[in-house]
Write a structure and sequence with these properties.
Strand content: 25-35%
Number of helices: 7
Helix content: 25-40%
Strand order of the largest sheet: 5-4-6-7-1-12-13-16
Order of helices and strands: EEEHEHEHEHHEHEEEHEEEEEE
Shape: globular
CATH topology: Rossmann fold
Distance between the termini: 29 Å
Largest sheet: 8 strands, mixed
CATH architecture: 3-Layer(aba) Sandwich
CATH class: Alpha Beta
Structural class: alpha/beta
Radius of gyration: 17 Å
């Protein structure tokens, strides 16, 4: 069931501890599915764990969450080989895709090696809702801040750039994130962009930000832009989703 426009929900959230399962899909993931417009059947959600090394135990947790929440979960893996010969076909058959966190640098390298960058663009243009957390948020942008290279955060600037902005994730929870993101925008390493506190997300329709969302009350989202030789930050108050904590 395609969305009515290319849609991305880029977040610093999406999962929470489950009642009957280890984790459950939170309001941000459920909203990504809702954006697809699917009705009359269980929604189809493909989970992509490249950034974390396609860990089978985590895939099992997500499958259990889907079973408990009446969501048909599939997985697209690249380790130790692709899990399907038709990765584009798998993505195009979904209502939504959720990309987990981890190393965005490794994710981008492997996706390009296997041609997944082109497959994701086909899915996005066809109306499959693309979403994710952390690495799964930065990847859709021009770039952002990452711990892919070590504990001291560094820029990543070779994102898929489906949207023409940079992205700052975990903006309120990791001390290096906010100052580095602003510094990289101020010096031109990254273009202007948007940042998310934990539990919030950015909704893009086409290549424009149309709304910000939160599954935790009181959290914020931010526009960060270059202003002369410095960066400025403007808070965007997110809409709180049903079921928010």
């Amino acid at each position: 069931m395609p969305a009515d426009a290319p849609t991305i929900l880029a977040t610093s959230g999406g999962l929470r501890r489950g009642s009957w399962t280890e984790v459950e899909f939170g309001p941000l993931v459920l909203h990504a599915i809702e954006l697809s417009g699917v009705t009359g059947r269980a929604p189809r959600l493909c989970c992509v764990g490249t950034a974390g090394g396609d860990q089978r135990w985590f895939q099992a947790w997500l499958s259990a969450a889907g079973q408990a929440q009446d969501i048909t979960v599939s997985h697209l893996s690249l380790f130790s080989m692709p899990s399907t010969a038709d990765m584009a076909g798998l993505l195009l058959a979904q209502d939504a895709v959720w990309v987990s966190g981890g190393s965005v640098a490794n994710l981008l390298a492997l996706w390009r090696l296997h041609g997944l960058d082109h497959s994701f663009r086909r899915a996005w243009e066809a109306g499959v809702v693309l979403g994710g957390i952390s690495a799964g948020s930065i990847c859709w942008h021009v770039g952002g801040t990452t711990d892919s290279f070590g504990p001291d955060l560094r820029p990543v600037t070779n994102g898929l750039a489906f949207v023409p902005f940079s992205n700052g994730v975990h903006y309120d929870s990791e001390a290096q994130r906010r100052p580095l993101y602003q510094r990289l925008i101020a010096d031109g390493t990254l273009p202007d962009g948007y940042a998310t506190d934990n539990g919030t997300g950015l909704l893009y329709r086409g290549t424009q930000l149309t709304e910000t969302l939160s599954e935790i009350k009181g959290k914020g989202t931010y526009r960060v832009f270059r202003d002369g030789e410095a960066a400025r930050e403007e808070r965007i108050e997110p809409r709180v989703l049903p079921g928010a904590d």
